[in-house]
Amino acid sequence: MKIQLWIARREPYWQRLDFLLKKIEKKGIKSLKASEIQELSALYRSVSADLARAKTFKVGTILIEDLHKLTTRAYSQVYQAPRGQDWGGIWRFYRWGFPETVQKTWPYTTIATLTFIVGGLIAWWYAWSDPNFIAMVAPPELITKVRDDQELWMGSIIGVEPLASSGIMINNMSVSFRVVSGGIVAGILTLFILFYNGLLIGTIATLVGQNNLAYPFWAFVFPHGSLELPAIFLSGGAGLLIARALLFPGQYKRADALKIYGLQAAQLVFGIVPLLFIAGIIEGFFSPNPSVPDPLKYVAGLLLFILLIQYCSLSKGTSSSSITPQ
After folding, report:
1. For residue range 278-298, what is the model confidence (pLDDT) as tens digits?
2. Distance (Å, rounded) from C-alpha 177 to C-alpha 239?
3. Is it the case that residue 81 has pLDDT exceeding 70?
4. How many helices (H) and strands (E) does the chain have?
5. Rounded Cα distance, 19 and 34, in Å
6. Alpha-carbon distance 252 to 13, whole Å?
7. Using CA atoms, how far apart are residues 184 and 177, in angstroms rounded to an integer?
8. What CA–CA distance (Å, rounded) separates 74 from 80?
9. What is the CB neighbour count within 10 angstroms for residue 3?
């Protein structure tokens, strides 16, 4: 390792971390924007790695001591916040941090969304042109219920709403976490799960459409789907962020890229958990409820989707971060 070149390349990050720490030490953590708090965490991990390298290559006692002091100060702010600030940090994250992360990572979420849509369109095309295609994708009992009985399957939820709702939450979170973890294998599994789920939804939508059940079907899907599907797309974006760090680390070393992009992926995951929780309650108690008129379900789904878009569009201002990738 060329010591002087390495120091010159890494020194701006050390200075930036020192600047943020001085700001906190003088004015408190509330003086930082949500994006600066995220940057602080990423810088702490990056500089900690620099300290380990400095010790390994024995770059000089003074530099090692300075880096040690810097990481110690950062550790006290990142992991030893005063009591009472934890809830404030959670509030700031969901108020500003999560929307900012969604906005910064929108290209990855867009790719995930398009993958799902492509799967749905392919299923729609083949299901209308080839009757045998539906039997290859949709479960046989579901096909029998729709084609033979001319009924939807959501009635099975009625009477067991609490059990069904909890099961739905667990299933949705399981799918989302698999989508995220798929990023470890270069994003291939992430894209496959999204494509397959799009294929499944497109096939079922065509099946109910062919049997004149599209209107009640989409009335069931709209209320919870307005939150559930975006949450899955965001988890797909998280998986693709991990894949990006592995395949295209850019100016960072792969380990540093994993820390930086992995932090953004983790923030997306933390953000979608409440969405999946709310969607599970809606799917268990509201969506299949026969006493709720279908038009009201459509309106509820539309309003929830609009509120979600508005929430994800919130902004507290931009950061001058030099480490957080755009």
Report:
1. 999 998 889 888 899 999 999
2. 9
3. no
4. 13, 0
5. 16
6. 12
7. 12
8. 10
9. 13
Quote the pTM value: 0.72
For residue range 83-97, list pLDDT tens digits in order.
445 566 788 888 888
Instruction: Determine the residue type at 60.
Output: G
Determine the Cα–Cα distance for residues 311 and 313; give it in Å rounded to an integer: 5
Can you point out the beta strands (E) in the chain?
A: none
Contacts with 91 (C-beta within 8 Å, 6 or more apart), sequence order:
none
Contacts 24+ apart (CB under 8 A), 308-316: 308/226, 308/227, 308/230, 308/275, 311/99, 312/98, 312/99, 312/102, 312/103, 313/99, 313/103, 314/95, 314/96, 314/99, 315/96, 315/99, 315/100, 315/103, 316/33, 316/34, 316/35, 316/96, 316/100
pLDDT tens-digit readout, 172-201: 888 899 999 999 999 999 999 999 999 999
Nearest to 228 by CA among 149, 172, 158, 163: 172
* Burial class of residue 115, CB neighbours in 10 A (0-12, 13-18, 19+): buried
Q: Which two tokens stand for residue 44?
A: 């702490």
